[in-house]
Structures are given as structure tokens and as C-alpha cells.
Specification:
This protein has helices spanning 3-6, 22-29, 48-59, 65-69, 72-75, 109-114, 125-136, 148-157, 165-173, 186-191, 193-203, 210-219, 222-227, 257-260, 263-276; strands at 7-10, 13-16, 38-42, 97-100, 117-122, 181-185. By secondary structure, it is α/β, with parallel strands linked by helices. A hairpin with a 2-residue loop joins strand 1 and strand 2 (13-16). Bound molecules: adenosine-3'-5'-diphosphate. The site of adenosine-3'-5'-diphosphate (A3P) has 19 residues, from helix 3, helix 7 and helix 13.
Amino acid sequence: MTEAELYTLYKGVFLPSSLHPPQSLKYYEDFTFRPDDILIVTYPKSGTTWMQEIVPLIISGGDPASVETLPNWDRVPWLEEHRACVLNLEQRPSPRMFTTHFRNNMMPPSFFEVKPKVIYIMRNPKDVLTSSFHYFGTTSFLVKPGPQSDFLHKFLNGEVMFGSWFDHVKGWLNAEDKERIMYISYEEMIMDLKDSVARIAEFLERSLDVAVVEKIADRCLFKKMKQNNMSNYSLVPTEYMDQTKSKFLRKGVAGDWKNQLTGAEAEHFDAVYKDKMKDVTYKFVWD
Ligand code: A3P
């Protein structure tokens, strides 16, 4: 099926229509944040699910109850998805934890007024492309990637769900009120998960013993999360997500693009990256 059949154009970006009906987008537009809400923000395939495991464990002081009993989409729900409307989020105790893939300029008015904390995760876009290429082929609500060269073209042009990676990252790097935003990369988490958990806990103003930080980091290892049915998307029926084609928790490494892209594709990607990111001064870990 095509973009026209599966996607809605919302504020200039494609969203899968079945997950984001008009009433859920309206719900988000009218949403009222609390100052102590915690928001995980990502461009898709950048480490969202990983952070949906880490943050609840930090908030619970390492108690695994919520990550063992609640699927990640109810534990740290996406505010733009249809489920947000039925989860009674207004009744949840503080601190509430949410996820969004929205760009900074798509955020609702309350976000700018109330200024909840944000954890923004970035990942090498060539790995985001690689992960997306495999993932898009598994779901019925996304347009199939087709040949890799076509998908590369679409990805670089932002003709995929949630639009351009470049616009997403630049928009959030240029966000106002930076003191309430923590920027962290997938690669930093791969390099040193314990240190990343400790830094996230500090940002969230939770003081955790070293032993608790270690316990959390251990639980959030790729091989452990793969076994957690509340986080590995095995609860999603095959008709929506067919993990026989590719696992949601697929490889969990940095640099897999080297196994995916041809030399010419990587060169083309780098040239587009250089041009689109020329004004960005942020030092990415993958640079
Ligand atoms: P790969 O497809 O490269 O393996 P998101 O949750 O934003 O959709 O991102 C999914 C990507 O994050 C997948 O990448 C997935 O394997 C990876 N991921 C999820 N949990 C992880 C973990 N604990 N450690 C490393 N990577 C993880």
C-alpha cells in the first residue's frame, strides 16, 4: 500500500493514519502537562523502547514491577497515539511518564507553558535508516520500504513516518528552555549504560545507590530486554507486526549501517548529512 493509503499528512509530516486518528491528534493538541511530567522524545528507531525501560526503573528506584507487568506503550504511552485517549492519563499519579515522536514545533501549547522535563535521544541516522528499513517491512500500518535505494531516497527526503530525521534533530537541538532537556545518544548508552543510567537519574533528580544503578543497567541490556514480553512487542498480533520478518529488538548495536549500505549509498548519505547539518554545532558521539 502507498503513502496516500496509509498515512495522514499532519503539520507537514507523515503519520500512520491507523495509529493517529484525528481525535487522538486533537487530544494531544489540548493536552495539559504537569511540571513534573517526564517526556521521552525520539525520532523513531533511535532508542525509544530502551528509554521506556530505563526511566520507569529509575523512577521506581529499581523496582521492576511496572516493566514486568505493563507493556511499554501503556507504561510510558505515546501522547499522539490513539491509546492515549483511553488510558485516563489525567488520573495518573505524578510523575507521569510519556513518549512522543513529535518535532519540537509540533508540541502543544501546554508543553511550552508548563515546561516538563524532556529526555531527547539521538542515534546515528545511518543506523536509524538501517533499523527503519527492517522495521517498516514488518508492519501493516507502514508503507513497505521497497528496494533499499528507494527507501534511502525517501528517508533522506523525509518521506517516511514522522518526516525528516534532520528536521527532527535540528528542531529539538534548537529548542528553547534547554535546561529542562537532556540530550543523550543511543551510542553513549551502548558505550556505557551504567554511566548513562546514572546521568539520567541525576537529570531526573533521583539519587540512586550505585548498586541500584547497576541493577537497572543490567535489566536494560539488550539480551535481557529481548526476553521481556512487556517490551519486545511480542504482544502485538502478527497481522500488525510480523516479527518473523525482523525482530523489533533486532540487533541492538551501533554501526550496523556498515552491513547494510553500499559504499556509494553511505557516501551519498554523508554528503546530504554534511549539507543539512552544516549549521549544527552540537558534537554528536558518532561524528
Ligand atoms: P535495531 O533495529 O538497530 O536493532 P525504537 O525503540 O526507537 O523504535 O528503536 C528500536 C531500536 O533500538 C532497535 O534497533 C532496537 O534493537 C534498539 N534497542 C531497543 N532496546 C535496546 C537495548 N536494550 N539495547 C540496545 N538497543 C536496543
